[in-house]
Write a structure and sequence with these properties.
heterodimer; A: 173 residues; mainly alpha; Potassium Channel Kv1.1, Chain A; three-stranded mixed sheet; 9 helices; B: 360 residues; mainly beta; Monooxygenase; 24 strands
Chain lengths: 173, 360
């Protein structure tokens, strides 16, 4: 009799086990973190939830990257659902450099940054996608074309004539 | 995933990145990186332009005032009647002078970075123009051109002396330095509250303006290559002498004059098109009929319109105040289009006047 009462009082917490691409590293997360990913949330809605722990293999995402994604989502586990900025003034909603998101993403190497954006895109975590894109915006800000090419290790494929022509083309007229 | 570079991101993510970039500066530089980036950005810009042209609702975004350099401790003081222009070559907006609510003229200069959205005070060097308001500042490649203006000398009404300026200054952008090109008594008209705009990046066109006792009805042209100022012979029925109008360069040969105030009728609400000939020597006036005059803002002088694509946008006071005599904190803009057609056979210009309507 007493055992039943205890069972009712302890809330049932669904746990999810994410397995990274190395098939070894595991992350145990709860629903608050999982639901930030639109893909996983949708996946779990059709999943039988009778087990207390559901295993999700994510063999496209490396252990390091998955760790970063979960660290980011953990920070927002008790926040309101994210509403992505829309419309042509979306660029004005960029968080300041001292915002937690920007500080967090700044601490990553550029490989880690691209990985995390890619993973966020794969898992459809819109808050993380936007934060990553805004971080890239800061990386290009007040940079010349040459500097942008160096930062992103891009090579130009324009001839000198074309380059001159593109420079003089008005973007907004 | 062994991705390392930005190019390994899917195209949708790249599009999203460019969409969230500041539209001035960053986007333009990113476009020059390579042909893939350029293709994607051009697509995004086309999309944003389409959105703009079908836009019916406008919303305000407050840009919080930030100082780029903490060396300058003071913020920009409140002012009116200052001169400002967007400078294309360094992607900033420059602002010069103006006057306080007590009519004391100012001569400080600021620039607003369009990319980082930050104000920065300009360390002016060279011959700095004397404090003034109602002068014009124009962007011409590597230089800014400042002309005219007026200043009240003293706050005491007995000693008050009003001065109008006819001097011309260049601001050399790379050196952040002023140069006086023409002094005050060199034969240029002394004008304030005039209209000025650049034609083909070579000629500065000056129309109207006030010289204290009188309003100017002539058109002056300054050739930046030869630095010769001359009066333009104009045919056709021109606007009556006025000041505080809005002058917009439409294309290489056409200048639009909108509104203003004069002695005969007070405030004007008319539109004139000034068309120059091929060699920019002679010009012809033509009045443009506005079809829905009921949508004109209540006061059409002293406010500057801004050309956005094929429209001229004005910000004006409302026609009415609410019944409890309160204004809304932010103007609510409603678009009302009026087509001003020109029968000269070239093309018709869409003149879209935006104004705040009464909120019932």
């Amino acid at each position: 009799m007493t055992a039943t009462i205890e069972l009712e009082s302890v809330p049932f917490i669904q746990k999810f086990k994410l397995i990274a691409s190395d098939n070894k590293t595991e992350f145990i997360i709860d629903e608050k973190i999982l639901n930030q990913s639109a893909v996983l949330k949708e996946m779990m809605e059709i999943q039988d939830k009778s087990d207390t722990e559901i295993t999700i293999p994510l063999n496209q995402i490396s252990a390091e990257c998955l760790g970063n994604v979960i660290k980011f989502c953990k920070h927002y586990e008790d926040s309101e659902p994210y509403l992505p900025p829309i419309g042509p003034t979306a660029c004005l909603s960029r968080p300041s450099q001292s915002h937690w998101d920007m500080v967090f993403l700044k601490s990553l190497s550029s490989k880690q940054l691209f990985d995390i954006i890619n993973a966020a895109n794969f898992l459809n975590i819109s808050r993380l996608i936007d934060a990553g894109c805004f971080r890239l915006g800061y990386m290009t800000e007040n940079r010349t074309v040459e500097e942008i090419r160096r930062i992103f290790q891009e090579s130009g494929d324009f001839s000198a004539v074309e380059e001159e022509q593109i420079r003089n083309e008005p973007l907004w007229n | 995933m062994n991705e390392k570079g930005i190019d390994d991101l899917p195209q949708t993510v790249l599009e999203h990145i460019f969409f969230l970039l500041r539209p001035y500066g960053s986007l333009n530089s990113a476009r020059q990186v390579n042909s893939r980036w350029r293709r994607i950005i051009d697509g995004s810009v086309r999309y944003m332009k389409r959105r703009y042209s079908s836009c019916k609702d406008f919303s305000w975004n407050e840009i919080t005032e930030k100082l780029h350099n903490h060396r300058y401790t003071s913020y920009i003081s409140e002012r009116g009647c200052h001169a400002a222009c967007y400078s294309k070559s360094d992607n900033v907006m420059y602002m010069f002078g103006g006057s306080t609510s007590k009519y004391s003229p100012l001569s400080d200069m600021w620039k607003f970075n369009m990319e980082s959205l930050e104000w920065q005070r300009v360390d002016q060097k060279g011959v700095i123009p004397s404090p003034r308001s109602l002068c014009t500042l124009l962007d011409a490649g590597e230089i800014l051109i400042l002309f005219g203006g007026y200043a009240k000398s003293s706050m005491n009404p007995i000693n008050q002396h009003v001065q109008f300026f006819g001097d011309l200054y260049y601001f050399i952008k790379p050196e952040q330095k002023w140069e006086q090109i023409r002094s005050d008594d060199f034969g240029l008209p002394k004008l304030a509250s005039h209209g000025a705009s650049m034609l083909q990046n070579r000629w500065m066109i000056i129309t109207g303006g006030s010289s204290g006792e009188d309003f100017n009805g002539d058109v002056y042209i300054l050739d930046l290559n030869t630095q010769i100022l001359s009066s333009v012979k104009c045919t056709g029925e021109g606007p009556s002498p006025r000041h505080g109008h809005c002058q917009i360069t439409v294309d290489d040969h056409n200048v639009l004059i909108i509104g203003g105030a004069g002695v005969i009728k007070g405030a004007y609400s008319d539109v004139f098109l000034l068309t120059f000939d091929k060699n920019i020597e002679k010009a012809k006036w033509k009045e443009i009929k506005v079809n829905n005059t009921e949508f004109w803002p209540p006061h059409f002088w002293g406010i500057r319109g801004c050309r956005v694509d094929n429209r001229v946008v004005f910000l004006s006071r409302p026609h009415f105040v609410n019944q409890d005599k309160t204004f809304q904190k932010r103007p609510v803009l409603t678009a009302a289009s009026s087509i001003a057609s020109s029968s000269s056979g070239q093309s018709s210009y869409l003149l879209q006047i935006l104004h705040k309507t009464e909120e019932q």
